[in-house]
């Protein structure tokens, strides 16, 4: 009987869902060592005051700044991959997007796929012909997200993806993110919008002075 | 302001004292020593007036080593293949050739590094966007590198394009009066200068771009000192 039980436990452990992204003791100046697991199809909302280190955490996961600690995607260690290969799968989309050409379309490798995706973000497909300089903040944010999604990352690290968007555009972005989650991606997003966190996220994390915690310390009784 | 005072003094000291003794001695070691001194000084000058100084010694060593490589290759090539001086290191040819090549390479490297650092700082979000999308540092820095190389080459290209009508008549008059084959030499010098500048500039800018990023494909603007006004 105990033997059979142990066997079941062993099999169950082997078949337990392995996290898609797993981060251990990740640290850099301004960030205490952080542990994090993100499962396939899971969305985590990361909240906390400005300057708490939320963006630093996302940048460190994407390996854009010098950092210590380990990260693994599907059990494959970050150090075993070249940085571009890691970032194509674990993609960071900053609040302030960067553009290296004058025309929007030049930032997309596959214009056909881009013109199909862009309308789903409440933008006209002809936005690809616009000069980057005429884009509004909200248009930039959505186009940068579309640019990232077209590269088909497994994990999206989003830094306030809907800041500066109106309600319709926000709804379009959230719908698109939900579609990605359903397709098996995972999302770690910074948001200041509690309602958005409630709508999209399966779990919520809180960042305060560089420390990652499970709950908002101000919520008090709600904490464990 | 010290360059206003120093320039005439430099010229006078170089012209009167050092060169005379050097040409008379015609020693390979002495010539090599003076060449090394010229390169070190050019390295200092090339990086002294950058808009944004970088932390540590690296811009200096980068500027100096790229100029050393470029000017040495081009000068030795000219002395052995084109001028056929005897001995090949004859300071009467080696020193003025190196001087002309170095003076122009210095401008190119100086401009190129300045544009590279300014460009990487200005285009930071664009470079990081490309890195975050999974592109390598060569691709991410391409625009900035190209711009830096172009700006560094502008003085040389201008000089070559306008040579026949603008600069050559002035430079050659003395030589024509002295009865030398001025045009041939002047054209040779112009090509040597273009070669030296192009080589030094490309080496400096590419090495600089690598220094501003790292093997883990990150942009490392933290390696620059804070901007000085």
Question: What attributes characterize this protein structure?
Answer:
heterodimer, A: 224 residues, alpha/beta, six-stranded mixed sheet, four-stranded antiparallel sheet, 7 helices, 10 strands, 32% helix, 23% strand, globular, disordered C terminus, B: 229 residues, mainly alpha, 8 helices, 79% helix, elongated
Task: Write up this protein.
The complex is a heterodimer of chains A (about 220) and B (about 230). Helix content of chain A is about 30%, strand content about 25%. Chain A is of the alpha/beta class and about 220 residues long. In chain A, strand 9 (about 205-210) and strand 10 (about 210-215) form a beta hairpin. Chain B contains 8 helices and no strands. Chain B is about 80% helix and about 0% strand. Chain B has helices at about 1-25, 30-50, 60-85, 90-120, 125-130, 135-160, 165-175, 180-210. At the A-B interface, helix 3, strand 6 and helix 5 of A face helix 5 of B.
**What is the H/E string of chain A?**
HEEEHEEHEHHEHEHEE
Shape of chain A: globular
Shape of chain B: elongated
Biggest interface, chains and residue tallies: A-B, 26 and 19 residues
Helix segment count of chain B? 8
Question: Sheet bearing the most strands of chain B, described?
Answer: none
Supply the helix-strand structural class of chain A.
alpha/beta
Please, what is the average pLDDT of chain A?
A: 90
What's the order of the H and E elements of chain B? Answer: HHHHHHHH
Strand count of chain A:
10
Q: Proportion of β residues of chain A?
A: 15-25%
CA radius of gyration of chain A? 19 Å
Number of strands of chain B: 0
Task: Write down the Rg of chain B.
Answer: 20 Å
Helix content of chain A: 25-40%
């Amino acid at each position: 009987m105990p033997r059979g039980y142990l066997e079941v436990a062993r099999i169950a452990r082997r078949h337990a869902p392995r996290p898609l992204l797993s981060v251990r003791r990740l640290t850099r100046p301004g960030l205490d060592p952080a542990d994090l697991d993100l499962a396939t199809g899971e969305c985590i909302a990361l909240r906390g005051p400005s300057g708490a280190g939320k963006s630093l955490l996302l940048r460190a996961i994407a390996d854009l700044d010098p950092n210590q600690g380990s990260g693994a995607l599907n059990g494959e260690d970050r150090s075993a991959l070249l940085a571009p290969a890691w970032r194509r799968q674990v993609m960071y989309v900053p609040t302030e997007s960067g553009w290296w050409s004058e025309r929007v379309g030049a930032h997309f490798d596959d214009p056909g796929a881009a013109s199909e995706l862009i309308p789903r973000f409440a933008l006209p497909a002809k936005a690809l012909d616009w000069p980057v300089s005429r884009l509004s903040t909200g248009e930039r944010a959505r186009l940068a997200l579309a640019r990232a999604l077209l590269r088909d990352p497994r994990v999206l690290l989003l830094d306030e993806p809907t800041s500066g968007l109106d309600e319709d555009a926000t709804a379009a972005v959230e719908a698109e993110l939900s579609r990605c989650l359903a397709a098996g991606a995972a999302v770690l997003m910074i948001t200041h919008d509690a309602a958005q966190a409630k709508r999209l996220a399966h779990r919520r994390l809180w960042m305060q002075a560089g420390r990652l915690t499970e709950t908002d310390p101000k919520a008090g009784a709600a904490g464990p | 302001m010290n360059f206003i005072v120093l320039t005439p003094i430099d010229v006078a000291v170089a012209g009167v004292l050092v060169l005379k003794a050097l040409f008379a001695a015609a020693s390979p070691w002495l010539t090599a020593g003076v060449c090394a001194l010229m390169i070190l000084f050019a390295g200092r000058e090339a990086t002294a007036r950058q808009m944004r100084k970088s932390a540590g010694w690296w811009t200096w060593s980068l500027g100096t080593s790229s100029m050393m490589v470029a000017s040495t290759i081009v000068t030795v090539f000219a002395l052995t293949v084109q001028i056929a001086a005897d001995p090949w290191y004859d300071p009467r040819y080696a020193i003025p050739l190196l001087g002309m090549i170095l003076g122009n390479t210095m401008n190119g490297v100086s401009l190129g590094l300045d544009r590279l650092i300014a460009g990487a700082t200005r285009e930071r979000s664009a470079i990081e966007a490309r890195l975050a999308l999974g592109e390598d540092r060569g691709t991410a820095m391409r625009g900035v590198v190209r711009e830096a190389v172009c700006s560094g080459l502008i003085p040389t290209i201008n000089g070559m394009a306008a040579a026949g009508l603008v600069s050559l008549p002035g430079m050659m008059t003395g030589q024509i009066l002295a009865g030398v084959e001025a045009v041939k030499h002047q054209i040779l010098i112009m090509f040597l200068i273009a070669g030296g500048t192009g080589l030094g500039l490309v080496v400096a800018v590419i090495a600089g771009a690598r220094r501003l990023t790292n093997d883990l494909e990150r942009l490392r603007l933290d390696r620059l000192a804070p901007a000085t006004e």
